[in-house]
C-alpha cells in the first residue's frame, strides 16, 4: 500500500505542477502495473479493465482492475474523466478524456503505472468525453466543441507529443463518441445534437432545434462521407461501437423535455454499411424502464451480440446483431460501464457502487462467482478492456 | 388535490434521500435508525397497504358474484359495486407509491402493470379496453380463467373493471339503467366482470405473497430478503439497494410520476374517483413519514433528531392544509 500512496501523491504533484512531460525521465518510484497486479507471473495473457472513477473532485481518477487477481488501483486525475482509448501501437498507453465540458486528457503508462502525459483543449474549445486512435497509433482523434459557435469538432493530435496537428468538422453539434471503422481510415461520429456552453455547465441550449446525426468522415482530411439520422428528432445519438463487419451500434438518449408527446422511443439502434439506421425494439415494459437513457454500448463480435446499458433504468440489454431480436436483459443498479472480456466470453458491467459483474455472452447469464466489488471505487460511465504484452 | 401537495412531498422525500446519500449528513443507508424505520414502514405501512388492496379486491369479487345473480342485478347493487370498485381503487393508490419488489417481480411483465396499465408510461388504454370488451362480449368462445390470465396488461386491471362497471359497452353511457340492462341482456358481461375481478385478485395475491411468503420462488419472502440485504445473493437480477433507498426512491418516483402525467384527466374518469385516490396516496405518505401507533422510530422522528424539526413542522402543516 505504501507504493500506492506514493504513486498517487506523485501523480497529483505532476498534475498540479504541469510537469507531466518530465515524468518519463524521472526514476520510477513504484512497480509497473504488471508487477503491481502480479501479471508478470501470470501464464495467461494479462487483461486489465480501466474506467474513469470517483464521486467528487478529489477522488476523480483513472482506475483499473485485474480481473484475475481481483486487485484494483488508480491514478488520480484532477478532472472527471469519461471515455478511454488504448493506443494500438503502444498498448501500454491509455488515454482518458475529460467529461463535457472539461478540457483535459491524460495518458496512463501501464508499464510504469504512472500518468506520463496530458493535453488540454485549444482556446475556444472544450472536450466532449471521447476519442480514439488512428490505426497506426500515431494520432489521437478527439471529439470537441467550438465554444463560440457550438460547432462540433474532431481534433487530431500527435499521439506521442499531443501536439495539435489538425482539426475537422464533426458535421454536427455536440459530437460525443467516436470510433475508427474497420477500414482503418473512416471515422464514425455520434453527433448528439445538443448545444451546451461551459458557462451554463451541461444545460442544453437548443432543445427546440436539436438534430442528432451519425456521420462518417475521412480521417485523413475530415471530408464528410455520409450522414444518417433517426426519425425522432429529440433522440440524441451519443454512444457507439463498431463490429468487425462495419456494423455500428448506437445508443440514444431522449430529451423528453423537448418532446410534445409521451410516446416511447427505442434507445438502441444499428447502422449497417449502405443501409438506413434500424431501431432495436423491446417490449414496452423494458423500454419504459430505461427512462429515455442508454449510456453505453459494446459489441461482442464472436457471439454477434450487442449490449447496451442504462444507468437510469438499472438495466443492461442484449440484442442479436443479425436478426435484431432482443436476446435478454440483466438488472444491475446504476449500471453503465460496459466492455467485452478479452476472451470474448463475457460482457463486463460496472456501476457507480464499485461493483463489476460478468455476463456470459453465450447464454447471457450472470457468472456470479466472477462478480467483483470495490467499496471505495465508483466506476464512471465507460470501461474498456485491454490486453497488453508485458514482454 | 392542490398542486402544492406533490411539491411538499417532493421536498420531504428529497430530504430523506439527501439524508441517505449526503456525505455531510450523519445519516446514511447503513444507519441503524434508518434501517429500523424502514423496517417499520414495511411492517406497518407497506405490507398492510398490500393486504388492504387484496381484501378490497376480494370484496369486489364477492359483490360482483352477488350482483350477477339475476334477482340482484339492480341499480342499488350496481351502486354498491361501483362503490366497492372505488374502495379498491383507493386501496391501490395507497400501495402504488411502493413500486418495487413484489409490485414488479419481472421487468418484462411487471405485476403492477396488470393492475394499473397507466402507471407504466402514462398511456390511457381505455379505447383498447373498450375494444377488447366489445370483442369478448360479441364472441361465442367459452370464457375461462385463461381468457384473462393470457391477456396483455393493457386489457385488464382496474381500468377494465371500471369500464365494465361504470358504462354500458353499447353506447358508453354512464346511465345505470342502461348498464343494468346490458348485464341482464348478455350473461357474458357478468362473466367478464367476475373474470376481470378474479384476475385482479390473482395479481393482488402475488404481491401479498411476495411480501409475506415467497418472493420469486426463492423460498423467502421479500421483506426478509430486503431487510437482511440478501436480495442480491438470492437473485441475479436484483439490484440490492438498502430498504431505505428502495422506499424513498420509489416514493420519489411516484410523486415525479404525478407531476409528469395527467392523472386528473386520464385516470379513474368514469368513476370520478381520481381525487379520492390521490388523497389515499397522500394519506399513506403522511403515515410513511409519521409512522403508526406501533411505530418506534419514524422518519419524522429521525428528521427531528437531526435538527430538521422545522422541516417536519412545515410538512405536517402542509399535510393538514
Please, could you describe this protein's structure?
Chain A has 391 residues and is mostly beta strands. Chain A has a single domain, classed as Methylamine Dehydrogenase, Chain H. Helices cover 7% and strands 45% of the residues of chain A. Chain A has three helices and 28 strands. Chain A has helices at 2-17, 33-37, 284-289; strands spanning 47-53, 61-66, 71-76, 81-86, 93-98, 104-109, 114-120, 125-133, 139-146, 151-158, 164-173, 175-180, 186-191, 213-218, 224-228, 235-242, 248-254, 268-271, 277-280, 296-300, 305-310, 315-320, 326-331, 335-340, 346-351, 355-360, 372-373, 379-387. In chain A, the strands form seven sheets. Chain A has a four-stranded antiparallel sheet with strand order 3-2-1-28. In chain A, a hairpin with a 4-residue loop joins strand 20 (296-300) and strand 21 (305-310). Chain A is globular. The two termini of chain A are 25 Å apart. Chain B is an all-alpha fold and 321 residues long. Chain B has one domain: M75 peptidase, HXXE motif (A middle domain of Talin 1, Up-down Bundle). Helix content of chain B is 65%, strand content 0%. Chain B is built from 16 helices and no strands. In chain B, helix 7 runs antiparallel to helix 9 (187-212). Chain B is globular and about 65 Å long. Classes of the chains: A mainly beta (391), B mainly alpha (321). At the A-B interface, helix 3 and strand 23 of A face loops of B.
Q: Could you name the CATH topology of chain A?
A: Methylamine Dehydrogenase, Chain H
**Largest interface, counted with CB-CB under 8 A?**
A-B, 19 and 18 residues
**Count of helix runs of chain A:** 3
Q: Give me the side-by-side strand order of the main sheet of chain A.
A: 3-2-1-28
- Overall pLDDT metric of chain A: 88
Helix/sheet category of chain A:
mainly beta
CATH architecture heading of chain A: 7 Propeller
Name the CATH superfamily assignment of chain A. YVTN repeat-like/Quinoprotein amine dehydrogenase
> For the report, how would you describe the main beta sheet of chain A?
4 strands, antiparallel
CATH topology of chain B: A middle domain of Talin 1
